Amino acid sequence: MNMKAVFSIHRKDKWIWLYIPLIILFSSFIVNLIVSLLINNDEKFYTGGVISIFAYVLTLGMIVVAQSFPFAIVMSVTRKDYFWGTALMGLTANFIIALFMSMFASLENMLNGWGNRFHFSIFLI
Over the stretch 34-90, which tens digit does the pLDDT of each residue have? Predict the structure, then answer.
């Protein structure tokens, strides 16, 4: 087994790597958008809601090792291959999430803060 096999092990669990982070981002966005609509904001409104994805990725980094490392060791994966395969999966998942965040950040800028000066993203594209 090598790094590609470890990547394959992680790739099978799309929920923990892609779907849950996107659900967290979109639910945080919806809650913050509703809050911004309920308040009278004459100036720009920055929520900091995007920090939720960073908290999840930190937690994911701790959980994924406990879930998949024993299985990988039983399948005769070296620690080095496990590290590089997990790092590659993390980079791939974070790249996909960053693409979504970049698309919505540019949409946010085009709409002048979603129409009510609400700024969710931290990107200034």
Answer: 888 888 767 777 777 788 888 898 898 889 989 899 988 888 899 999 999 999 999
Q: In whole angstroms, what is the distance from residue 76 CA to residue 84 CA?
A: 15
| Backbone CA torsion sign across 73, 78, 80, 83 | negative
Domain of 27?
3-117
- The whole-model pTM stands at 0.80
| Tally of domains in the chain | 1
- Considering the domain boundaries, does residue 70 fall inside one? yes
Q: Please give the full DSSP string across 55-111, using - where no structure is assigned.
A: HHHHHHHHHHHHHHHHHHHHTT--HHHHHHHHHHHHHHHHHHHHHHHHHHHHHHHHT
Cβ contact 72:52 at 8 Å = no
Q: Is residue 122 part of a domain?
A: no
Report how far residue 21's alpha carbon sits from residue 15's, in angstroms, rounded to the nearest whole number. Answer: 8
* Residue 94 belongs to a domain: yes
